[in-house]
Design goal:
By secondary structure, the chain is of the alpha/beta class. It contains 18 helices and nine strands.
């Protein structure tokens, strides 16, 4: 296997090393930790823009089949966050009204009696400078359906509005009084199957702005099977907690971030060329907010590195993480919001994929009997898959079989370096549940798909084809 490059964010890589001996996909662990970092930072720092400050909080949903170990990733990251002393966490089922009331009171005050609240409300915590009445929260929901319920449009709309980090949010109390929540800052880390996701979110939200605010993190199953995982490394865990605390003590990070000149030019180009490579029409509104997601990541990475400004390397890693994740986002949604024909095509592809040695047209017809009305309809969808180079025909003896084509994750832009990511180095395909063999990686290297000769360094205007080593 190729040697990992120098780390561009040691704290994040240390966390991934800590949880390496678990079954959750690395992509789940990466985004769970990042979301907790964003919750911990809330409004401690930002990147100022003419349209308003960008803060590092985010909404993240881990999507995948049952037993993909979504809750494991959520619980491990939130446990690490609690060890830093962070107490602004919402768990369990609630209503939209109760959520706003708890947010207004302050999630760190929920265990304080009413008679003591007036005494402590004006105090501050010496180690962090945090007010007792900060209106920020991490929604922790291993099963998002348990927290939001089914098609709770009121709650969904409320979360949509709160993502924008407005200075004040109005709400009505149970006794009818109108109140304002100052600087509400919400982070969300939840898990869902594609079935439960459809129950939580009505299909018509695809045509609204909600999905552009969520990051959908896809995992097709457990990364590996570990019968009895070893305990987490205690010394490494303590070091990570210390690193997280270092971000919020003293003046280790600025109140407002600036960018280095190179980081600014890199980010400007990403914005102007619409860097998102998602062509799926269900994400048409995501592109408009892609820069916000990218900047939130850049802030988090700069803060974890204790940088006083956002550097070019912070930007490269942020864009690489986001670009890689975007490759899987259409898979995360599955057939949600698609036409019936697309849904049937995906069903057919899964049947073929589940037969790694290939499957005959006759056997496909038997397995897809309840999906397609005729063999002619099945053949039409099969043609769509072969034309898209997702399925190929192979000859086994005198028999023709159909087999799924392994697709390698790649990007048209050279402003990313997927080899920075351990999950890509481990398995550079769209099948996130298994590791790539050394033989397969060697085959790709021999085909020139991995090893590329690096050009000599020279000054060059940043474009979509600019190699990373020149930035």
């Amino acid at each position: 296997m190729t040697a990992p490059p120098e780390s561009l964010c040691p704290l994040l890589d240390a966390y991934l090393e800590l949880v390496d001996d678990t079954e959750s996909p690395t992509l789940y662990h990466r985004w769970s930790f990042l979301t907790c970092i964003g919750a911990m930072l809330y409004r401690r720092t930002c990147y100022p823009m003419a349209t308003g400050n960008i803060y590092p909080n985010m909404y993240t949903i881990l999507l995948g089949p049952p037993a993909a170990r979504k809750s494991t990733a959520v619980n491990l990251a939130s446990k690490m966050l609690r060890q830093t002393g962070y107490t602004h966490i919402s768990k369990g089922k609630t209503s939209a009204e109760q959520f706003l009331m708890d947010l207004s009171l302050g999630y760190n005050n929920l265990r304080i009696s009413a008679k003591d609240l007036d005494i402590v409300s004006n105090l501050s915590l010496a180690d962090t400078g945090e007010s007792f009445t900060n209106h920020h929260v991490l929604i922790e929901a291993g099963e998002l359906q348990d927290f939001l319920g089914n098609s709770n449009v009121t709650f969904i709309s409320q979360l949509t509005n709160l993502w924008d980090n407005q200075d004040e949010h109005p709400y009505r109390t149970k006794n009818g009084a109108n109140e304002l929540i100052s600087e509400p800052t919400i982070s969300l880390l939840g898990g869902a199957t594609q079935t439960s996701f459809k129950k939580v979110f009505p299909v018509d939200v695809v045509g609204q702005g909600l999905l552009s605010r969520f990051l959908l993190i896809y995992g097709s199953g457990p990364r590996s099977k570990i019968y009895n995982p070893k305990p987490l490394d205690e010394s490494l865990s303590l070091a990570i907690v210390k690193g997280m605390k270092d971000m919020i003590t003293g003046k280790n990070i600025p109140r407002e971030y600036t960018m280095s000149d190179t980081a600014f030019e890199y980010s400007r180009h990403l914005y102007e060329v619409s860097a998102s490579e998602i062509t799926d029409p269900r994400f048409q509104y995501y592109t408009g907010r892609r820069n916000d997601h990218y900047m939130k990541l850049a802030i988090q990475i700069a803060a974890m590195n204790l940088h006083q400004e956002i550097t070019a390397n912070d930007c490269v890693l942020a864009n690489t993480i986001l670009t890689y994740t975007e490759k899987f986002m259409p898979l995360a949604l599955g057939e949600f919001g698609q036409d019936h024909g697309a849904e049937n095509t995906e069903h057919l592809f899964r049947l073929i994929k589940n037969s790694p040695n290939g499957i005959t047209l006759k056997d496909l017809g038997l397995q897809a009997l309840t999906i397609f009305k005729s063999m002619g309809e099945l053949a039409s969808h099969l043609l769509r898959l072969t034309s898209a180079k997702r399925v190929d025909k192979i000859k086994v003896g005198e028999t023709i079989k159909y087999i799924a084509i392994g697709r390698r994750v790649s990007a048209t832009s050279k402003m990313v370096d997927f080899k920075l990511l351990s999950e890509f180095r481990e398995n550079p395909t769209f099948d996130t549940e298994y590791r790539v063999s050394e033989e397969q990686e060697l085959k790709w290297e021999l085909e020139g798909l991995v090893a590329e000769e690096k050009p000599a360094k020279k000054k060059q205007k940043i474009t979509s084809s600019t190699p990373l080593e020149l930035i």
